[in-house]
Design a protein that fits this description.
By secondary structure, this protein is an alpha/beta fold. It is built from 25 helices and 7 strands.
């Protein structure tokens, strides 16, 4: 009797699907590597690191041609090392930050694996690397990608009782953001011991040793601050003299901001991060809120308290602070990701699975509709490249439909990731590159490098950290003698002409702060009215 060979359907295992998707989300982090650095903070930090390299001075921080006292040195040292190795470029500024973030993803995986199991660890990595504000922060690089990696690494090593490495990572975190970087680390370790009543471990001498090692390892930062400021009380900082860099580091930059008594002030809202998290942790924010609520509801039955204590203590601190910015939350995203992954994988009842499916498919639809609306409103030059990304998404959806049962948690999970990949590829490869033509500082610097190579240019009535970073020549400040070419506004040009200067506009550039988007700018039909103007002007007396 003849047998007919059956056609076997090619099915990937869940691990193989995870490896494929994880490779994609890792590559996603590099998708904005060549997009010009956003103003103000990203370009400011890049300019400080550039000045370090050009001056061969790694102890003093300078911005706007003056001593700069705000953030600690570690991110600038990392960027400066990258500049030394690869040259001063957009991508060489962003690269070390992305690598630190990926280090954080690795430690998130290792920590979740120790606390729970392999599947929670895998899903936590995917959740972390698709959290919206984390991906955005790889384009608008500040201190947070470094902190995200350093803090989860410190907690992991302290959990493993690796006091030396734990202290090293904690010290680097302090040298990135200040003493408040201790909060998630201490809350994670201390909270676990407190709620498990492990008093013997809590009072162990190893923690005193850890504090001593941290104090030793932050001495480069303390030396740099003392050398630049405390040894020179004659320097004018924040409009006054006699400013102590050490006092600023230990008090004003942290507690001063928290209580709004320092030289840098803000205005806080206790509910700011509650609604910020709704978009910053997309497409997982609803699941995160549910995870936290269920965790607290079943508090006594939990197997670990590291993640919830680190996350909630830091979240509460930031909510009570008078100085708040959305990217502050990024540093606790690894803990959020573990909590969210554990919660999703714990859903087994039909009611729980239905909640997960409806919530995530609703978010998928909203994100897809939102992306299409943005594209239709903005109409980027690469408008039709969106179709290629949409085709890629359809292909990925078909593959996931082929590999996975559409009703399973895995299918919903990986489809949510696929929409996040599509959305952020659109932002990083189509939308933001097009918007950057309106960041006048970077576009003017590129023009000057081409048509005025090596020419020193001054600021007048205008300032741009992007221009400072991208110009391949010295930038002259307003307190210098009037240079031959200035970067200015139309009002600045008129003022120079009233002073008797002959002004020739070499090139005009549309101007908008891309990091502060609003509807009039996003809508193509109203964009012209939302734009300012910057000019490169040749000046003669």
């Amino acid at each position: 009797m003849l047998t007919t060979p059956t056609t076997r359907r090619f099915i990937l295992t869940e691990q193989q699907v995870w490896l494929l998707i994880t490779a994609m989300v890792i590559l996603l982090q590099f998708s904005a590597l060549f997009v010009p650095i956003l103003e103000p903070d990203g370009a400011l930090y890049a300019g400080i690191a550039k000045t370090m390299v050009l001056k061969h001075d790694y102890w003093n921080l300078y911005a706007d041609g003056h001593d700069w006292l705000d953030k600690p040195h570690f991110p600038f040292w990392m960027a400066a090392i990258s500049f030394q190795l690869f040259g001063i470029h957009t991508w060489s500024y962003k690269l070390p930050a992305i690598l630190f973030l990926l280090m954080g993803a690795w430690y998130t995986y290792r920590f979740a694996l120790l606390l729970y199991d392999e599947k929670v660890a895998r899903w936590a990595v995917c959740i972390l690397l698709t959290a919206e504000h984390l991906v955005i922060s790889n384009n608008d690089v500040r201190a947070e990608p470094y902190l995200t990696g350093l803090i989860i690494a410190a907690v992991y090593h302290f959990y493993k009782r690796g006091i030396l490495l734990g202290a090293v990572f904690t010290a680097c975190a302090i040298m990135t953001k200040g003493l408040f970087a201790l909060v998630p680390v201490c809350a994670a370790i201390g909270g676990q011991m407190l709620f498990t009543r492990n008093w013997k471990e809590l009072l162990h001498l190893r923690w005193l040793l850890a504090l001593l090692l941290i104090a030793v390892f932050i001495t480069p930062e303390l030396y740099a601050l003392y050398r630049q400021f405390d040894q020179h009380p004659e320097k004018t900082v924040f409009g006054t003299t006699g400013v102590s860099g050490l006092r600023f580091f230990f008090w004003d930059s942290q507690f001063g901001r928290f209580m709004n008594t320092g030289p840098i002030k803000g205005s806080g809202d206790p509910f700011f991060f509650f609604h910020t998290l709704l978009w910053a942790f997309l497409p997982w924010s609803v699941m995160l809120y549910a995870a936290v609520i269920i965790f607290i509801k079943n508090w006594k039955q939990q197997k670990e308290y590291y993640c919830i204590c680190a996350a909630l203590a830091t979240f509460a601190l930031f909510s009570l602070s008078r100085f708040q910015l959305p990217h502050y939350l990024n540093i606790i995203f690894p803990f959020f990701a573990i909590l969210t992954a554990q919660y999703i994988l714990s859903l087994h009842s039909s009611k729980g699975l239905k909640f997960f499916r409806i919530t995530q498919y609703t978010i998928i639809i909203l994100l897809a509709v939102g992306a299409v609306l943005i594209d239709l409103l903005y109409k980027p030059a690469m408008h039709y490249a969106w179709l290629l990304l949409a085709a890629s998404l359809c292909l990925l959806y078909l593959l996931l439909h082929y590999w996975l049962d559409k009703s399973t948690k895995q299918a919903v999970f990986y489809r949510t990731i696929s929409i996040s990949i599509l959305l952020n590829l659109y932002l990083n490869t189509i939308l933001y590159p097009d918007m950057m033509q309106y960041q006048s500082g970077s576009t003017a610097a590129v023009y000057a490098n081409t048509y005025l190579p090596g020419r020193s240019i001054g600021f007048y009535y205008a300032n741009s950290y992007a221009f400072d970073f991208y110009l391949e020549a010295p930038v002259l400040r307003p307190d210098s003698a009037m240079p031959g070419v200035v970067f200015t506004t139309p009002e600045g040009t008129a003022a120079l002409q009233q002073q008797g200067y002959t002004c020739t506009v070499l090139k005009s550039f549309p101007h908008f702060y891309v990091s502060k988007l609003d509807l009039p700018f996003v809508r193509k039909v109203t964009r012209a009215g939302a734009l300012g103007e910057r000019q490169l002007v040749a000046v003669k007396k």
